[in-house]
TrEMBL record:
Residues 8-279 form the Tr-type G domain. One of its GO terms (biological process) is regulation of translational termination. Increases the formation of ribosomal termination complexes and stimulates activities of RF-1 and RF-2. It binds guanine nucleotides and has strong preference for UGA stop codons. It may interact directly with the ribosome. The stimulation of RF-1 and RF-2 is significantly reduced by GTP and GDP, but not by GMP. This is Peptide chain release factor 3. The gene is prfC. GTP binds at residues 17-24, 85-89, 139-142. PROSITE patterns: G_TR_1 (PS00301), G_TR_2 (PS51722). One of its GO terms (cellular component) is cytosol. GO terms for molecular function: GTP binding; GTPase activity; translation release factor activity, codon nonspecific; translation release factor activity, codon specific. It is found in: Cytoplasm. Keywords: Cytoplasm, GTP-binding, Nucleotide-binding, Protein biosynthesis. Belongs to the TRAFAC class translation factor GTPase superfamily. Classic translation factor GTPase family. PrfC subfamily.
């Protein structure tokens, strides 16, 4: 328990959303509150330009920037906040899913006009797999959005989570007058582009007081009174334990671009968001209060300089104290390693650090020692679990265009897929290399990087698969038979696990019902057999 104070100071989280819902804008407002940036617009550059959807040169340029904004640490009211960035582009969704394994909670931004969108759904699925506590921010209330009750119902139904309104909006669009804070019992009147210090808040302990009519007019006051009575009757106080177990999500309404309703959420966030949580490993749950250091790699980022294949591995500290120049145990490789230049991230600057505590993320220079999911400890042999690989959705065969560079191609494929943005499969009983990704853009990035960094040139040939399912069975003979009968659709992943490549949902369902002894998994635990 040596580091209790440090642990309790920290909150590590991510903001997630469907592209364009306002994640970047909200991130920026948080950083402004934390004093980590001084001007609006500072975070914008992190985004892959919307219109450059297939321009991988743009991505190359952005990669450098996104290393710097991968983790943004700032202090707010004596709380040390680590905000982990997630790529906005859907083709990098797998990276986002991985990052979610390194946070203790999330803020989900929903666009009040569009409601629940495709990425919102998927991101929430990942959060639910880990019971991650979620706070919902309904953004863009300055636009004519959906009816607030309908919106809540839609989110609850589509995301399968119970909501608990913390603030309540008074109209939307051009009639948007502000929000009533159901918890603090005050009225926050809407003004565009609010500064952190000059929010127009009116304390209204009793909604029947005439001051409410004065502030928002009789008609809206009457509606708010009715809504508030209904909400208080239905919801009451926020059940914080239910939030912490991922069952109930507090909801805030606001407008990120106008910095409206953001502070209310941030203040609640530091009050209720979980401190660094225990994490499951192959032997036991490791609480952050364990005196011995442990952590895992959740993201690997290639450096920009193609001549040096240096990478940056992002380590989430889970327990104890990480120290510069101290030897730690790399469990998978069974060797001791130390880091002379580990760094931490304060908004846009990188700083070499001497020590880090649970909840912190440390950037480690890596020359190829790390894979996603690797565990570092102070000597003990265990590995963190629950860092899954998800089924890719687009599959392409790799065609080697330069047989003289076969070795480089193979090495490049292995190393690039170690970064976790794409998965490499090998055709069963053959040699065909198949790359699976969640987005088309990844193929362009891989092709480009293979050439730039490894001097290997390749092409891709589309394959007619829609999902990869890891297959297991309690009956080895049944698994063997299935693998042989379906050999055209079978491949192995990098760890040698068997994978069934399904052409369509219909094929998948047919195989599942015809083969009740075979289990089909849509995610795979990385390095399950590492120890
Ligand atoms: P993302 O990271 O989730 O992809 O979204 P981002 O913050 O970039 O916001 C997407 C667009 O929505 C931006 O407009 C942004 O200005 C706008 N936006 C964010 N919050 C609000 C809000 O509360 N109200 C309104 N009306 N708009 C909001 P853009 O025109 O696409 O980009 P930009 O030219 O402003 O950079």
């Amino acid at each position: 328990m040596k580091y209790n104070n440090e642990i309790h100071k920290r909150r590590t989280f991510a903001i997630i959303s469907h592209p364009d819902a306002g994640k970047t804008t909200l991130t920026e407002k948080f950083l402004l509150f934390g004093g980590a940036i001084q001007t609006a617009g500072a975070v914008k550059s992190n985004k892959i330009k919307k219109h450059a959807t297939s321009d991988f040169m743009e991505i190359e340029r952005q990669r450098g920037i996104s290393v710097a904004t991968s983790v943004m640490s700032f202090e707010y009211k004596n709380t040390l906040i680590n905000l982990l960035d997630t790529p906005g582009h859907k083709d990098f969704a797998e990276d986002t899913y991985r990052t979610l394994t390194a946070v203790d909670s999330v803020i989900l931004v929903v666009d009040s006009v569009n409601g629940v969108e495709e990425q919102t759904r998927r991101l929430m699925e990942v959060c639910r797999m880990r019971d991650t506590p979620v706070i919902v921010f309904i953004n863009k209330m300055d636009r004519d959005g959906k009816n607030r009750f309908d919106l809540l119902e839609e989110i609850e139904k589509e995301l399968n989570i119970s909501l608990h309104p913390m603030t309540w909006p008074i109209n939307s669009g051009k009639d948007f007058k502000g929000v009533y804070n159901l918890h603090d019992k005050n009225l926050l009147l809407f003004t565009a582009n609010t500064k952190a210090t000059d929010e127009d808040t009116v304390s209204i302990s009793d909604l029947s007081l005439p001051v409410l009519d004065e502030k928002i007019g009789e008609k809206d006051a009457a509606i708010l009174r009715e809504d508030a009575e209904l909400l208080e009757g239905v919801y009451g106080e926020l059940p914080v334990p239910d939030y912490l177990s991922g069952k109930v999500a507090p909801v805030f309404f606001g407008s990120a671009i106008n910095n409206f309703g953001v502070k209310e959420m941030l203040d609640t966030f530091i009050r209720i968001a979980p401190v660094p949580r225990p994490r499951p490993t192959s032997v036991r749950d490791i609480p952050p209060t364990d005196d011995k250091f442990s952590g895992f790699i959740f993201k690997i980022h290639a450096n920009l300089d193609p001549k040096h294949r240096d990478r940056i591995a992002f380590l989430r500290v889970c327990s104890g104290k990480f120290e510069r120049n101290k030897y730690f145990h790399h469990v998978r490789l069974d060797k001791d390693v130390r880091f002379s230049n580990p760094y931490t991230f304060m908004a846009r600057d990188k700083d070499v650090i001497e020590e880090a505590f649970p909840g912190d993320v440390v950037g480690l220079f890596d020359t190829g020692n790390f894979k996603i999911g690797d565990t570092l400890t102070e000597g003990e042999n265990f590995f963190f679990t629950g860092i899954p690989s998800f089924s890719p959705e687009i599959f392409k065969e790799v065609i080697n265009k330069d047989p003289m560079k076969t070795k480089q191609l193979e090495k490049g494929l292995l190393q690039l897929t170690d970064e976790g943005v794409a998965q490499l499969f090998t055709q069963f009983g053959g040699n065909k290399k198949i790359i699976g990704c969640v987005g088309d853009l990844q193929f362009e990035v891989i092709q480009y990087r293979l050439l730039q960094e490894y001097g290997a040139s390749c092409e891709f040939r589309a394959m007619p698969y829609y999902k990869a399912c890891w297959i297991t069975s309690a009956d080895p003979k049944k698994l063997d038979d299935f693998t042989r009968f379906k050999s055209n659709n079978i491949a192995t992943d990098k760890d040698g696990h068997l994978v069934y490549l399904a052409q369509s949902e219909w094929f998948l369902n047919t195989e599942r019902s015809n083969n009740p002894d075979i289990e089909f998994h849509f995610t795979s635990e990385i390095h399950k057999e590492a120890v």
